[in-house]
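FAQ: What does the model actually see?

It sees only this:
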Amino acid sequence: FFPSEPAARAECLSWLFWQMGSAPYLGGGFGHFYAYAPSKMEYPINRFAMETKRQLDVLDKRLAVSEYIAGDQYTIADIAIWPWYGGLVKGRLYEA
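And it is asked to produce this:
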């Protein structure tokens, strides 16, 4: 699940780090304010919803040109990204 060829390995690591840096906006930001905050506040919900939509657009554009997120191989990047973003798109997170 981790490419050995240097360029493919770098691409995989880039997407894996993208997920590590982006997912907190989805879970800690959007998830918290949308589903768990004791009171609903419009600004943070809208702010994190728009960032989540932007991130989904990044993934959508990437997957439009590549079978898997890091290229033509299924990698750890796909495994790491799926529960966060795939779960949201499938309606399994936050009832969103």
